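Supplementary Note 3. Input sequence used for the single-chain structure prediction.
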Amino acid sequence: MPGRKTDVSDAGWLRQLHSYGLLRGSFRPEAEIATLRAYMRQRERLTEYAAAHILNMQKALMETNLQLHHVVSDITGATGMRIIRAVVYGERDPKFSSRSGMSATIHRWTRSRPHWSAMIVTNTSLP
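The predicted structure, written as discrete structure tokens, is reproduced below.
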């Protein structure tokens, strides 16, 4: 009868089905497989957390007019993090990359586009 279902009646129904042999045991993986599954779930969860934090970093950079994603492909890489640390510590010189051991590639890239370099370091938007 619809609307009259309770946990007690469900338990009674399951008991009756079990007494007729119509229920089979649930699957329980071996201990090693269960441990591996737990590690995989944890790894997936940590990867999702990391991705969320990277998106939060990118959003914060965009809100402060730091267009860092135009200069480096991965803001969490060595170069991206070095630029972010320099800006956080107050560096305002557009040529800071050559003094701080920044990779030659990023230095060449910003040197050939001075408006990008100034935009990244001085918190300004594109002209």
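The chain has two domains: 28-63, 66-127. The mean pLDDT is 77.
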